[in-house]
Amino acid sequence: MRKRDRAARRVRRTLRVIVALAVVGLLALLAYGWAQRHPQDTPWAPLDLAQPPGLFTGRKLVALGEDFPRCQSLLDRAGVTYTVLAPLREGDNCGYDNALRFAADEPRITPFTPAGLGISCPVAAALALWQWEVVQPAAERHLRMRVTRIDHLGSYNCRRLYGRSSGDYSQHATANAVDIAGFRLADGSRISVLDNWKDGGAKAAFLRDVRDGACKLFATVLSPDYNAAHRDHFHLDQANRGSMSWRSCR
User: Fold this and answer.
1) pTM to 2 decimals?
2) Each residue of 125-178: pLDDT tens digit?
3) What's the CA gap between 41 and 64, in Å, rounded?
4) Boundaries of each Extensin-like C-terminal domain copy (predicted)?
């Protein structure tokens, strides 16, 4: 009897191990299939501007600041034309060596006003995705028309945070930020962050959607909800905070 009991226990243990391994294998296959279908939601999959934003898209965009050729190749693959700007250096803390300007006649990019906006490549890649996946869909959803121009307050500016005389330098000091003031629509009307953020209508809903969508793509997004200094624009930047990788969205 004892021998039969021991043999039965061994068989049951073996069966439990086989079942556990089968379950683990099935879960692994399901996870692999999910990851293949959702590369934007996995940290190891390469960034692809043709994919909608996912859980790790923002971090991957920030990482492009360390790899200008990689950033350029992503824009090239997406069919976006641009001009690389000559490197600039002002003192010890200002300047850039990875900035570009979208081509004036680039059909995939909504034009910026004033024209000639120069921005770091990670900001450019994020702006492209933001336009395609956030701005235009939000305009169609809330306003039933497309955005034809985006108004900005500039990018590169050799200054410290909030224009102070001391302290850390702004991301603007390396063209790694852009300030968005408003949007022009197909019917000629304008949406202004200053005038429409609190008006409670469709324009305000649109502005909140594009702010919230930017938070998935930029390391820092500051709006009128942050402070009075941002009452008239969205500040968007790709600050690389290293291993902390924390993001600010307000």
Assistant:
1) 0.86
2) 999 999 999 999 999 999 999 999 999 999 999 999 988 889 999 999 999 999
3) 17
4) 70-250
- Compare 13 and 168 and report the one with higher pLDDT: 168
Asked if 94 and 174 touch (Cβ cutoff 8 Å), the reply is yes
Type of residue at 50: A
Q: Which residues make Cβ contacts (< 8 Å) with residue 112, sequence separation at least 6?
A: 102, 149, 150, 151, 152
Please tell me the total count of domains within the chain.
2
Residue with tokens 């191990």: 17
Q: Are residues 51 and 104 in the same domain?
A: yes
Q: What distance in Å separates the CA atoms of residue 250 and residue 239, rounded to the nearest whole number?
A: 15
Domain of 25, in residue numbers: 1-37
CA 115/CA 99 separation, integer angstroms: 15
User: How many angstroms separate the CA atoms of 142 and 134, rounded?
Assistant: 12
Interatomic CA distance for residues 100 and 204, integer angstroms: 31
- Angle separating helix axes 121-130 and 68-77, nearest 10 degrees: 30
Rounded distance between C-alpha atoms, residue 41 and residue 44, angstroms: 9
CB 186 within 8 A of CB 170: no
Phi and psi of 185, rounded to 5°?
A: -105, 170
Residue 26's pLDDT band, with cuts at 50, 70 and 90, is: very low
